[in-house]
Amino acid sequence: MNLQKCAVIGTGFVGATAAYTLATSGLFSELILLDVNRAKAEGEAADISHGVSFAQPCAVHAGDYQDLKDCGLVILAAGANQKPGETRIDLLHRNEVILKSILDAVLAVAPDCILLVVSNPVDLLTYLAQKLSGLPACRVIGTGTVLDTARLKYLVGQYLQVDSRNVHAFIIGEHGDSELAVWSSANVSGMDLPDYCRIAGKEFSQSVLDDIYQNVRDAAYHIIEGKGATYYGIGMAVLRIARAIVRGERSVLPVSSVIQGRYGVDEICLGLPSVLGKNGIETVLDLPLSYEERKRLESSAAKLRTLLDQMKI
Ligand SMILES: NC(=O)C1=CN([C@@H]2O[C@H](COP(=O)(O)OP(=O)(O)OC[C@H]3O[C@@H](n4cnc5c(N)ncnc54)[C@H](O)[C@@H]3O)[C@@H](O)[C@H]2O)C=CC1
Ligand SMILES: CC(=O)C(=O)O
């Protein structure tokens, strides 16, 4: 398995933007773009290649599945995106069919790869990908709530007028409408939010927290109403995850992966803080939660489990 070699399957808004961020990152020596629309993959590969001399050497090209031989990281961004008014769950049946059509072809040539699922509904597709592929759970990773957590950090940073990198807080659960903010352990560089609010001269109240949470939860709906799709934030989130894996950083990111016997369900994929390294997920952490937060996480897990049960998975 070659972690210098990465493939992006599906080169629509998300796949192409992720490919661009990856190509400019210097992380990979080879980046292969695949799409059922071969002309689209070729166009995106050519466009990105023309900027490579401004970054670091990286062979960016369109390809077929046989080009994925030995590929270390395979990113799945193929499939339908939400139209205004649609939820991520509404995409399930369309994207399940697409995922199934891709998996066998990938595994035939890159059986030891790490799969990074981006397509929605990401938690359910990650679960499906792990079950269908038979890959170890640690090697089938969904982007989970990494993007939502970045949105939370950004909005808290804006509210408190502080660098969002110094905001430590997580969105966990479904990447979708049942996700939750873990306010009980949120802090700014070790200072509790109420204390930091006092210093910053800002109100700290449940309504302020609710407002920030709702803006995070509904961010994709607002962006899709405005411009039809979201892709820059997720493109940068994909790079952050890829970097943690390729460089073996052991970074803690709230990715999604199969967990067993937690949060009231036998088995599920959910966005939870996880240590990411060269082998994929090394540990899924049990974040300390308040009683209310645990109940909401259990309810998010139950929602996803019910959908999987309906699919008989
Ligand atoms: N996990 C996350 O945080 C996020 C996930 N997404 C999801 O990413 C997915 C892609 O979104 P967009 O790029 O905006 O959609 P898009 O419609 O622009 O692109 C999808 C691409 O997939 C290709 N495709 C379809 N079937 C294929 C197959 N069998 N093999 C290879 N390629 C195939 C299409 O030709 C198209 O180029 C959606 O499911 C969207 O909801 C989007 C943003 C954030
Ligand atoms: C579309 C989507 O899943 C997002 O931007 O969060």
UniProtKB/TrEMBL annotation:
Oxidoreductase listed as a keyword: yes
State where beta-D-fructose 1,6-bisphosphate binds.
Answer: K153, H168
Q: How is its activity regulated?
A: Allosterically activated by fructose 1,6-bisphosphate (FBP).
Location of this chain's protein in the cell: Cytoplasm
Q: Could you give a single Gene Ontology term from the biological process aspect? A: lactate metabolic process
Q: Which residues form the Lactate/malate dehydrogenase C-terminal domain?
A: 145-310
Its GO CC terms? cytoplasm
The active site annotation covers H175
The residues the record assigns to binding substrate are Q82, R88, N120, P121, V122, D123, D148, T149, A150, R151, T230
Broad class of the protein's primary localization: cytoplasm
Which residues does the UniProt record annotate as the domain Lactate/malate dehydrogenase N-terminal? 5-142
What's one GO MF term for it? L-lactate dehydrogenase (NAD+) activity
What EC numbers are recorded for this enzyme? 1.1.1.27
| Alphabetized UniProt keyword annotations | Allosteric enzyme, Cytoplasm, NAD, Oxidoreductase, Phosphoprotein
Q: In which pathway does it act?
A: Fermentation; pyruvate fermentation to lactate; (S)-lactate from pyruvate: step 1/1
Which reactions is this enzyme annotated as catalysing?
Answer: (S)-lactate + NAD(+) = pyruvate + NADH + H(+)
According to the UniProt entry, which residues carry Phosphotyrosine?
Y221
| Leader peptide range in chain numbering | none
Query: Subunit details for this protein?
Result: Homotetramer.
Job description of the protein: Catalyzes the conversion of lactate to pyruvate.
Q: Which family does it belong to?
A: Belongs to the LDH/MDH superfamily. LDH family.
Per its record, how is this protein called by name? L-lactate dehydrogenase
